[in-house]
Amino acid sequence: MNFVFVRFIMLTLLLVLSIPFTLTAQVIEVVEEEGRDDKSSFDHSTRYLFAPSAIPLKKGEGYYQNVMIGLNSVNVGITDNIAVAGGVEMITLLLSLDLEEPIVLGFVNAKYACQVAEHVHVGGGLLINGVISSGALFNENVANATAYGMVTLGNENTHFTASLGARMNNTGEFGSPVGAFSAAHRISNRVGLVTENWLIWDNRGSFSTLPAVHAGALRFFSDFIVVDMGVFFFGAHFDGDNATLLNGLSDFIPLPYLGCSIEF
Asked: b or e along 180-215 (b: 16 or more beta carbons within 10 Å of the residue's beta carbon)?
């Protein structure tokens, strides 16, 4: 085991162990400040945990997002209706540095969103994700392009978003449709709730098999950083013919979710 790998593991463990203590201290500080009723300057209503909402990121606004230490991304508002994002998963990259061809998992996303009525926003975009290696941007059979549309109901403090996307790889083959149902509610000026639920239909183009990923988190707001702490789990699989639960309760083992976003 090389020194770079050992050092990376040690730093990762230190970061993970420090998060609960840091969050606890922040929550206690917020609770004790009874007279404080100001909001953070950036409400993060444009996103959930990973999925976007149809509320637009304004021109000049932006944030850096880290999910589970490994996934690092940046989102920037180009205009009041158009935003772009890009990200790289760092753990896989660091673990593959000794390989002849290091593996880089990355994505880029472009989103258009606007308000069409009071408490109603609509939007759409294009997400491209895949493997970047060997000097090629996206290698064959390891990339997906997802065109998606979404509707968001509500305001910056409480909103619900339904999204639907169609996937295609770089060989022109269509993959499974993807749907997401997400919601956020701001309990107070400094604490909120977020949930995100993904549904992926099978490759036959039918709805007979329904894998799902569910996530829920508490969101803690400060003046320039937002921390999400919660759980996610893989949902049940159902057979469309007889609605039989195939995988049982073993699918519902919760896994930890940690993320943070820093406004710039």
From this structure: bbbbbebeeebebebbbbbbbbeeeeeeebbbbebb
